[in-house]
Task: inverse folding
């Protein structure tokens, strides 16, 4: 993923529609970024905004969270937006926590809900 800024997008199942709509609303800003996303989230974003540069990785439970974590650790991801559903139990919760830990350790901007993501995108667009 050489060159350009890279944004990672992840959304729990109950938040995928929200992420697709968020991408649609922020299409202009996202057009200037490379996007990596877990499999299903990336597919939903591409359905909403087909002209974006989205690299789809594995789905979260199948290793997509770890793939994004590896990209964070190697300095290839500049920001993370992860729409978390706190009301649904997640069997791969440990993977999610590991991903958030890496974002904190490597000090990259991270938004876990739409309100914070709006603020983050506003600073990225400025």
Result:
């Amino acid at each position: 993923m050489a060159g350009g800024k890279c944004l990672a997008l992840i959304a729990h199942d109950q938040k995928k529609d929200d992420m697709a709509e968020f991408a649609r609303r922020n299409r202009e800003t996202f057009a200037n970024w490379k996007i990596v996303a877990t499999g299903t989230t990336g597919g939903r974003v591409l359905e909403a905004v087909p002209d974006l540069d989205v690299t789809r990785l594995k789905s979260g439970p199948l290793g997509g969270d770890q793939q994004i974590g590896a990209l964070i650790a190697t300095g290839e991801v500049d920001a993370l937006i992860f729409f978390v559903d706190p009301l649904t139990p997640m069997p791969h919760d440990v993977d999610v926590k590991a991903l958030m830990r890496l974002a904190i350790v490597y000090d990259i901007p991270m938004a876990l809900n739409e309100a914070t993501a709006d603020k983050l995108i506003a600073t990225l667009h400025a």
User: Anything to note?
Assistant: Residues 93-105 form the longest helix (13 residues). The mean pLDDT is 92. Residues 6-125 form a domain with the Rossmann fold fold (CATH 3.40.50.1380).
